[in-house]
């Protein structure tokens, strides 16, 4: 390795307090700390963000991806997906010469000392467990090019026990002194840059003081801001991530279970959420009732966690997550039932406009999108479905080429018998229900995210229905 370690904290001014030009223009070496070169394997939502943000902190970074088209795009300063603010950070650091992308693991091995594994761990086809081929594949691909003392840092969300398995692989095949550490990532899509540069906490699972020191040094510009830094063992670090996501999924399903009860009792889940959220032990975040959680993380993470707990003989501990998953999926089915009821009991031949294809606003990610799932189910029931989304249509069309897509929100709603809001983009909140009323065939809307003002829509003559709220 070619770096010199300084003590934790290292006397660097807080990242956010440093003058921007100073922190952008100088490497940490110039700041008198150390010269570290990083590689980031995998350039999806996590990897591309991590690579760009590490370069933003001043490091020399090489991003690696097996997809040459993606690498070319990234090298030209463009982000292959929608993530607010990332394009600027990426372009700035490429221009400054601190960041580049390649398909070559050899370049990453030769050009870096710390290697972050940021590849995907999707749900296995036909099973709940995680598909770990990308993680093990990238470690295997990197091994021939590692130097003694390099550190391999896993950031992907993995089944507990993965770091230990990788440690065994490295001991058997990598140069001496190559270690592994686990450093789970908690970023949210849509806020990825902010969450990476200013996280709530940093967690590392390490086997040696040397690995700890090294990661403390890497993150010194961030911890200098007072960000908590939790140092633990491999298994705990791996579990922190799935435990956090399970808690968040449970919180969402809890409020959606309350929505089901509110529907039966004629109560209002949004007021209930506000009231319980004032209790600081509960907190108001992640209590937005609606179509539930989707995306590339929460749904597959809770399933993979259940599968792994089963393998460990701890299946019973997580049976509640099965219910969390089911409550979540029930909201989608309920929305389709509600749509059917609102158009007179049969969706066949009805025109339904679905607002939202991305799994959440400020993202173009359509993986396990609740809104798109509802659109497909309504289409399968015989309706003529038109989907609108400000950013997610290209990805949606790739997955479901048979749906109709429209980029203009008003055109999408033209002649609709029913509108279903499935993703709470601001654009939908800003629409004037009176203007929309003249475009549609039937003034009926399902607000699947409790995002609109019921009074405004009702007073413009709409039948407004929301999940977990009284009908009128
Ligand atoms: C999540 C975790 O928040 C993040 O820490 C982890 O690193 C990755 O998984 P992300 O998938 O980007 O991040 O989205 P998030 O903002 O957590 O939303 C997840 C889903 O829950 C979305 O479908 C969202 O619409 C839904 N959600 C969120 C609700 O239905 N209600 C809420 O109150 C909050």
What is bound: which ligands? uridine-5'-diphosphate-xylopyranose
Shape: globular
Largest sheet: 6 strands, parallel
Strand order of the largest sheet: 3-2-1-4-5-6
CATH domain fold name of the largest domain: Rossmann fold
**Mean pLDDT across every amino acid position:** 93
Number of domains: 2
Number of β-strand runs: 14
For this structure, what is the CATH homologous superfamily of the largest domain? NAD(P)-binding Rossmann-like Domain
Q: Which structural class is indicated by helix and strand composition? A: alpha/beta
Q: Share of helix among residues?
A: 40-55%
- CATH architecture grouping of the largest domain: 3-Layer(aba) Sandwich
Estimate what percentage of residues fall within beta strands. Answer: 5-15%
- Stretches with pLDDT under 50, minimum 5 residues: 1-34
> Helical region count?
20
Straight-line distance between termini: 67 Å
Reading off the top of the CATH hierarchy, the class of the largest domain is best stated as Alpha Beta
Rg, Cα atoms, Å: 24 Å
Written account of the structure:
With 472 residues, the protein is of the alpha/beta class. It folds into 2 domains: 9-232, Rossmann fold; 233-472, Rossmann fold (3-Layer(aba) Sandwich), CATH 3.40.50. 43% of the residues lie in helices and 12% in strands. It has 20 helices and 14 strands. The protein has helices at residues 20-25, 45-56, 68-75, 86-95, 105-111, 133-142, 162-173, 192-197, 209-218, 220-223, 234-265, 269-277, 298-311, 319-342, 370-380, 393-399, 409-413, 426-429, 433-437, 454-459, and strands at 37-41, 60-64, 99-102, 114-117, 151-154, 179-182, 202-205, 229-232, 351-355, 384-388, 404-405, 418-421, 444-447, 463-466. The strands form 3 sheets. The chain has a 6-stranded parallel β-sheet with strand order 3-2-1-4-5-6, with helices on both faces. The protein has a 6-stranded parallel β-sheet with strand order 11-10-9-12-13-14. The protein has a two-stranded parallel sheet with strand order 7-8. α11 (234-265) packs parallel to α14. The longest helix has 32 residues, at 234-265. It is globular. The N and C termini lie far apart (67 Å).
